[in-house]
């Protein structure tokens, strides 16, 4: 039976194994030393050893042959450095994560792992993971996700012309398929010298040669790749062609399932992709939509969670006594929908965050929810009406929008992370680390 840790779901763009730190052994004679200086912070050998043990356990669980210990150690250290740089940047720029968000994330992890939330500390301890440290790591994941939203997602725009062009290209090429890939990335530093480019190319070519000689793709990924999810073979779950980088899409036109690409060059570095599977994605979409309104109270230094909840409870009582929900929304909601009386229009499944959708789905038309907390704050939700709608065309456009946004976002975030890493002051003191 799989261990508890192996059933913990991935939450965000960085896998939790890059952030999770197992409990340190209580060895009174254990010696520690600094293996890397990252701006004003340090990474110690004991921290690195914990990460290597965790990665080794994950590779063993997958049945993947273990890479050379020294190479694996260097790869994991580099990922730890990048993670540390991002968390430092978040702190310096004032990005904070509310503890209630961490609580909800941990509750979801416990639920998806099939255990009560109260049993999570015990389950983690049985795997040698300290609960307090694990909680901090989950907070780090949420921080990086919000950092991505702030620095990249909010700046990615998709025009109607891009959507139309995407749909036409899909139709012309018969590309209503989705692809499942594995991916190796060997990065090239920003403004790299010709020697640095050649060093990265040689490393990528060495990885490709080993794969073509029969080596396990995941093992080579763990050894050579700079991708955040390298320990899982750089796995890219099912994606339409439009959500993949252009160089990947071009390579896939001549690839069959199981094939490995030639070396692919992008501004970020050198890539190798493996086509794991392919499937058709043509399905009619009929969904139940909900027409809803809401009132949002955001949390800040002045408005606490208790205060927001109290205000919404008072509004709810007044609306139930005959008050106008829309007027309260116009006067008191912190959402952009306030000007429209809190009207969110017709919502399809997946259009809102899970906490909001779950509360909304439990309401009948005309009903008003109790105060509901989401990552955005506290809400009152009113369901106006419901309908069943054929959303095939609309969903095609939305899929196109999301695919283009995701591709642009992935490329922009990878580039932005590389820039932050290159700008950081880093000294590596790992004895096995190459120059």
Describe this structure in words.
The structure is a single chain. By secondary structure, the protein is α+β, with helices and mostly antiparallel strands. It has three domains: 5-154, Orthogonal Bundle (Triger factor/SurA peptide-binding fold); 171-283 and 395-427, Roll (Chitinase A, domain 3), CATH 3.10.50.40; 286-390, Chitinase A, domain 3 (Roll). It is 45% helix and 18% strand. It has helices at residues 45-62, 69-92, 99-112, 120-126, 131-151, 160-173, 194-212, 217-224, 246-252, 305-320, 325-332, 354-361, 392-423, and strands at residues 34-38, 41-44, 177-187, 236-240, 264-266, 269-280, 286-297, 343-347, 372-374, 377-390, 426-428. A four-stranded antiparallel sheet has the order 4-3-6-5, with helices on both faces. Strands 8-7-10-9 form a four-stranded antiparallel sheet, with helices on both faces. Strand 9 (372-374) and strand 10 form a beta hairpin. It starts with 33 loop residues before the first strand and ends in a 7-residue tail after the last strand.
């Amino acid at each position: 039976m799989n261990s508890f840790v192996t059933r913990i779901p991935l939450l965000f763009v960085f896998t939790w194994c890059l952030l999770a730190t197992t409990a340190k052994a209580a060895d009174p004679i254990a010696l520690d030393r600094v293996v890397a200086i990252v701006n004003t912070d340090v990474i110690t050998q004991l921290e690195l050893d914990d990460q290597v043990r965790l990665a080794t356990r994950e590779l063993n669980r997958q049945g993947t042959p273990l890479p050379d210990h020294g190479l694996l150690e260097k790869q994991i250290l580099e990922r730890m450095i990048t993670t540390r740089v991002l968390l430092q940047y978040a702190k310096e720029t004032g990005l904070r994560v509310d503890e209630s968000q961490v609580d909800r994330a941990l509750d979801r992890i416990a639920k998806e792992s099939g255990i009560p939330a109260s049993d999570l500390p015990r389950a983690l301890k049985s795997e040698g993971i300290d609960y307090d440290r694990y909680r901090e790591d989950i907070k780090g994941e949420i921080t990086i996700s919000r950092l991505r939203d702030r620095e990249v997602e909010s700046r990615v725009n998709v025009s109607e012309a891009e959507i139309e062009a995407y749909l036409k290209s899909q139709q012309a090429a018969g590309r209503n398929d989705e692809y499942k890939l594995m991916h190796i990335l060997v990065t090239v530093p920003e403004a790299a010298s010709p020697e640095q480019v050649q060093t990265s190319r040689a490393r990528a070519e060495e990885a490709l040669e080993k794969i073509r000689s029969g080596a396990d793709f995941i093992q080579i990924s763990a050894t050579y790749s700079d991708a955040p999810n390298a320990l899982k073979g750089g796995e890219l779950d099912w994606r339409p062609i439009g959500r993949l980088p252009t160089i990947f899409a071009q390579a896939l036109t001549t690839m069959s399932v199981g094939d490995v690409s030639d070396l692919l060059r992008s501004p970020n570095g050198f890539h190798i992709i493996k086509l794991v599977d392919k499937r058709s994605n043509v399905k009619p979409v009929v969904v139940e939509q909900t027409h809803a309104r809401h009132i949002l109270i955001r949390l800040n230094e002045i408005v606490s969670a208790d205060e927001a909840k109290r205000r919404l409870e008072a509004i709810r009582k007044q609306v139930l006594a005959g008050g106008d929900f829309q007027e309260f929304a116009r006067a008191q909601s912190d959402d952009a929908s306030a000007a429209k009386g809190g009207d969110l229009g017709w919502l399809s499944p997946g259009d809102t965050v899970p906490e909001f959708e779950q509360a909304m789905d439990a309401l009948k038309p005309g009903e008003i929810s109790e105060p509901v907390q989401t990552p955005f704050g506290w809400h009152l939700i009113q369901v106006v009406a419901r309908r069943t709608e054929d959303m095939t065309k609309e969903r095609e456009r939305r899929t196109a929008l999301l695919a283009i946004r995701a591709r642009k976002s992935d490329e922009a975030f990878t580039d932005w992370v590389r820039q932050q890493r290159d700008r950081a002051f880093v000294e590596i003191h790992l004895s096995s680390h190459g120059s």
